[in-house]
Amino acid sequence: MTDFYTELPKVELHAHLNGSISPNTMKKLIAKKPDLKVHDQMTMIDKGKKRTLEECFQMFQIIHQLTSTPEDILMVTKDVIKEFADDGVKYLELRSTPRRENITGMTKKTYVESILEGIRQSKEENLDIDVRYLIAIDRRGGPSVAKETVKLAEEFFLSTQDTVLGLDLSGDPNTDDKGVFATHLSQEYQLAAETFNLTQSQVWELSYKSINYIFASESTRSELRKKWNHLKPKVLNS
């Protein structure tokens, strides 16, 4: 049954970049910054252990310390995209708030450019996944920061040929992201199916209908529907 959920083509509509970092990528980031004295237990949930919601969101502060350069953001973006592709995600809308780091010289613009470069390189590697980016506004930053982000989003919206689709409004969410909550989309589908006693056909329909809610154009929706229909006989009969 687990193979069915992994092979099921999926749309991921709500993935925060920094919240989707896997333990493997976290280890690479920690190794690059020994001076921070961050250890694995601060960023990962051991199998069978639980973490409070507050503890999960404290992780974002550590992640921000570990992702302080454009090179960090590029590596994280590429790793996250590959992991989603490996999990059978065919269309991904990543979202992330542009961040500046005065110590390293990273600007909000170079932050966004690093994500876009990660998307571009992943595409060149022919991963079977279509990745788009929503530039996020953290509502806690206030109106002047929001306006700055809107201007940045407008600039990239016009120059990236539909990779930047628009804006995300973020702030203080209550369940999110495969990295912080030690899960993946296939597992979430399986949990939903077991909780609500869904058949494989019903799970397929859930996944197929999610295509309706992407931010990209109708032509992209049409291409995704073709892909789902092409894969359907193999996945449902496996």
From TrEMBL:
This protein is called what?
Answer: Adenosine deaminase-like protein
Q: Where is the Adenosine deaminase domain?
A: 9-172
The protein's required cofactor(s) are namely:
Zn(2+)
Catalytic activity field: N(6)-methyl-AMP + H2O + H(+) = IMP + methylamine
Q: Which domain of life is it from?
A: Eukaryota
User: What Pfam families does the record tag this protein with?
Assistant: A_deaminase
Keyword Metal-binding tagged: yes
Q: Which UniProt keywords apply?
A: Hydrolase, Metal-binding, Nucleotide metabolism, Zinc
Keyword Transmembrane helix included in the entry's annotation: no
* The species this protein was found in: Tupaia chinensis
What PANTHER family does the record tag this protein with? ADENOSINE DEAMINASE, ADENOSINE DEAMINASE-LIKE PROTEIN
What's one GO MF term for it? adenosine deaminase activity
Q: What family classification does the UniProt entry report for this protein?
A: Belongs to the metallo-dependent hydrolases superfamily. Adenosine and AMP deaminases family.
Q: Which GO terms describe its biological process?
A: adenosine catabolic process; inosine biosynthetic process; nucleotide metabolic process
Q: Which residues cross the membrane?
A: none
